[in-house]
Design brief:
It comes from Cytobacillus eiseniae. With about 80 residues, the protein is of the alpha+beta class. About 35% of the residues lie in helices and about 25% in strands. Strands 1-2-3 form a three-stranded mixed beta sheet.
């Protein structure tokens, strides 16, 4: 799943080397924390959050076969 998130986000940003995904796994959920350069935040979030919503939709669909709930957080 990490590779999927990175492969979606890297082409969108100006600083692809600073894209990092951290995983936090709990009993019934997995949280992926996406970290990008602060100058790239607008590109990852998009107008009215449309790009972020599209990324989350793809990630949630890819993880729907897992038994755990998947969350994607975006931070600087």
């Amino acid at each position: 799943m990490k590779e999927l998130i990175v492969s979606i986000v890297k082409p969108l940003v100006d600083f692809p080397e600073e894209v990092q995904v951290t995983t936090f796994e709990e009993e019934n959920r997995v949280t992926y924390q996406l970290s990008v350069n602060k100058n790239d935040m607008g590109k990852v979030i998009g107008k009215q959050g449309r790009v972020a919503k599209a990324i989350r939709t793809v990630v949630y669909a890819a993880g729907s076969s897992q038994q755990k709930k998947i969350y994607l957080e975006i931070s600087e």
